[in-house]
């Protein structure tokens, strides 16, 4: 379908490749994302962690406080500190920052979220779904991508039984 996407940090110590198209692309206008980026929003590519192949270097996880009292793990280049991707409680799922791609222009958001804190000079195209807070993934994601997500989140038959 589309060519494999590659990206990296500013100094070149981190290089990564996405081994498929993302599951879904979020443009998030929440205040956490505004603060973390120093900008109006973040563009996150949601993709299976196993499909984010780090080719060079080792991104450094940093626990970052969020307004709701939780923390979010942001993986940064240990040298230049550029944020490459995030994790929100689910290590199987990465949120790759589109601006670190070599060609960010190949990415268009599938959905805009947290528009309740969107800066008012930003106009969202009518053709893209937008939500004041969050949305129903089952309603918006293509069925094949929901299957991909379930495949990494659901326990598999081969996983060992849970100990209580
Ligand atoms: Zn770097
Ligand atoms: Zn956000």
- Rg is 16 Å
Q: Given the C-alpha coordinates, what overall shape results?
A: globular
Distance between the termini: 44 Å
N-to-C series of helices and strands? EEEHEEEEEEEHH
Oligomeric assembly: single chain
How many individual helices? 3
Q: Would you identify the regions where 5 or more consecutive residues have pLDDT less than 50?
A: none
Sheet/helix structural class? alpha+beta
The total count of strands amounts to 10
Describe this structure in words.
- This protein is an alpha+beta fold.
- The protein is 13% helix and 30% strand.
- The protein is built from 3 helices and 10 strands; from the N terminus they run βββαβββββββαα.
- It has a 7-stranded mixed beta sheet with strand order 6-7-8-9-4-3-10.
- A hairpin with a 6-residue loop joins strand 7 (71-76) and strand 8 (83-87).
For this entry, give a set of tags:
164 residues; seven-stranded mixed sheet; binds zinc ion
Summarize the structure in short.
This protein has 164 residues and is of the alpha+beta class. Helices cover 13% and strands 30% of the residues.
Write the layout of secondary structure elements.
Elements: E1 5-8, E2 15-18, E3 24-28, H1 31-37, E4 42-48, E5 52-56, E6 60-65, E7 71-76, E8 83-87, E9 93-97, E10 111-113, H2 137-140, H3 143-153
One zinc ion binds next to helix 1.
């Amino acid at each position: 379908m589309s060519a494999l996407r590659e990206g990296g940090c500013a100094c070149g110590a981190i290089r990564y490749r996405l081994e498929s198209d993302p599951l879904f692309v979020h443009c998030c206008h929440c205040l956490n994302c505004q603060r973390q980026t120093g900008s109006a929003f973040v563009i996150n590519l949601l993709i299976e962690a196993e499909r984010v192949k780090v080719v060079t270097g080792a991104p450094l996880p940093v626990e970052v406080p969020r307004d709701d009292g939780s923390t979010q793990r942001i993986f940064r280049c240990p040298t230049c500190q550029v944020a490459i991707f995030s994790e929100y409680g689910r290590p199987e799922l990465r949120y790759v920052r589109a601006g670190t791609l070599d060609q960010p222009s190949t990415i268009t958001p599938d959905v805009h979220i947290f528009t309740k804190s969107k800066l008012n000079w930003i106009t969202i195209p009518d053709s893209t779904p937008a939500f004041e807070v969050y949305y129903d993934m089952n309603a918006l994601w293509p069925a094949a991508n929901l299957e991909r997500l379930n495949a990494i989140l659901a326990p598999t038959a081969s996983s060992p039984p849970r100990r209580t």
